[in-house]
Specification:
Length: 263
């Protein structure tokens, strides 16, 4: 009888939680579907109301789900929600809330991390990513190979984000195009391998600055997205300085060549 009351209590709390949680957006659903393995740590960065992190917590996709945002009011509200609904057996010590700058994530070495950064501009995302990479590399002090996975979904500047991934020798795991509310987004799942000076690891340069796996030129939404990108850079070409026009022309050629690649 005691057990039945406990189960009923947990079910009641679960029902209340489902009423307070909004439905995941299409972008977050795609990110959620990309996570098909277990991690020691998943970092839901710029988590806003924590919808993705809550979904991953319910799925038990990691030992610890970390909710990260720099806005104190959001993290306080989220911590209250978690303390109210995720303190039952099975969720104890499975989540943490951090009110910090994403650039200062306290990633531990020799653990499996997935860092999710979505819903921010490409320039800020690059700043976050490079700070995380540089800080983590400095902590590598033993003769081992460490890896961090990232799922990235910038609001814009996808080409520049991809150039940064290439610069730091990231390995592409998966990528896709998402159409949501009449806008297009790229979701990029990558892995960065870290070594110290005594360990050799071959860089995995398989990332295209214009995307590779994600394109399906028989898909009308992909056709529309490519047309939108080309129109953007055509406008930039007309407005740019002579040096900028050289760079922009090269980018246009790279995107235009996608239509001639084999399916």
């Amino acid at each position: 009888m005691k057990t039945n009351k406990k189960i009923g209590f947990i079910l009641l709390k679960s029902t209340k939680l489902s009423l307070t949680m909004k439905k995941l957006s299409k972008r977050l659903e795609i990110i959620n579907s990309m996570i098909d393995t277990h991690y020691q740590n998943i970092w839901d960065c710029c988590c806003d109301h924590g919808l993705l992190g809550l979904t991953l917590l319910k799925r038990r996709t990691a030992n610890i789900i970390h909710f990260v945002d720099i806005v104190p009011s959001l993290t306080s509200r989220l911590e209250s929600l978690l303390q109210q609904h995720f303190v039952a057996e099975g969720y104890t010590q499975r989540w943490k809330v951090h009110c910090i700058d994403v650039a200062k994530l306290p990633l531990t070495t020799n653990e499996k991390h997935l860092v999710i950064i979505a819903g921010v501009g490409g320039e800020l995302l690059i700043e976050f990513m490079e700070s995380i990479v540089n800080k983590y590399q400095q902590n590598i002090s033993v003769s081992t190979i460490n890896e961090i996975e990232f799922i990235l979904c910038p609001v814009h500047y996808n080409y520049q984000v991809r150039q940064t991934l290439i610069k730091h020798h990231f390995e592409l795991l998966d990528e896709c195009i998402v159409s949501e509310n009449k806008r297009f987004y790229e979701v990029i799942h990558v892995k960065k391998t870290f070594t110290n000076a005594t360990v050799k690891s071959e860089p995995k340069d398989n990332i295209s600055p214009t995307g590779s796996l994600m394109w399906d030129m028989t898909n009308k939404f992909h056709q529309q997205y490519l047309e939108k990108i080309l129109n953007h850079y055509q406008r930039a070409l007309l407005a740019g300085s002579p040096n900028e026009q050289v760079t922009t022309s090269h980018i246009i050629q790279q995107y235009a060549s996608l239509t001639s690649k084999p399916k």
